[in-house]
Amino acid sequence: MASLLELQREFAAALRDPRATCAVSPAANLAIYRNNAEFAFRHALEIAFPVLRRRVGDDYFRQLAALYRQAFPSRSGDLHWAGRSFAEFLTNQLRDGDYAWLADLARLEWACEESAVETELEAVGPGFLATFEPEDLELLRFDLQPSLRLVSSPFPVFSVWFANQRENAPPVDESLQGECGLTRMRNGVLEVQAIGADLFSYLHATAVRATLGEAMQAAALDERRLVEVLGFLFSKGLVVSATPR
Q1: Which among 63, 100, 65 has a CA at the least distance from the CA of 86?
Q2: Which end of the chain is more exposed for a tag (fewer CB within 10 A), N or C?
Q3: Coil, strand or helix: which one is 171?
């Protein structure tokens, strides 16, 4: 007689593959479970990637969801995380084709999903810098909002995202120049914003714990532009603390 663990593994495999053997009887009962599991998984992806679904259409999205589920079955009882590897899957599935840009669109949509479940912390204002000695400012490391996510793409994925916040939106020319930007939660509302390349470079360096001076160099900012970038960070409430190196 098969152990409970073996039965559970057979059941999980049969939910994804009708050809898999399973001791559950009658087979019609298993088919009900299989259909429900497939629908729930696909529906979770539809919620997480609405713009991608609109761009490819329901039929193709359904095909992609089925293939993705075979390659990356859910490992959690919380289906919010079902789409965690969807962008990775699309990168491999659509590599070198006309729809390769969809993988970056999926990265942007998943960044939105990650931002939405992060904690919002109280931000500090620019006056916070006055608590440090002037010679220490370039050595500061800023701690940014936990919900901040940064996305960069050689495709205009932010333009696509903004244009497709409603059904039946006209297509965006994917041959336009690439874009970079951010997602974050602010006062309980998701914010998505395209930003300049130098600001993106500064934020990326800061997010990986570069000092203010190091991030300034990484983004090739002069002093005037640095003032503008810092103004953006504090006006957007992105800085939650700072510590000297």
Answers
A1: 65
A2: N
A3: coil
Pinpoint the alpha helices (H) of the chain.
Answer: 4-16, 27-48, 50-56, 58-71, 86-93, 101-116, 157-163, 197-207, 212-218, 223-235
Each residue's pLDDT, cut to its tens digit, for the chain (245 residues) gives 567 666 666 666 666 666 666 666 556 566 666 778 888 999 999 999 999 999 999 999 999 999 999 999 887 778 889 999 999 999 999 998 989 999 999 999 999 999 999 999 999 999 999 999 988 999 999 999 999 999 999 999 999 999 999 877 788 887 789 999 999 999 999 999 999 999 999 999 999 999 999 999 999 999 999 999 999 999 999 999 998 87
Cα-to-chain-centroid distance, residue 55: 18
Q: Please name the residue that has the structure tokens 């400012």.
A: 137
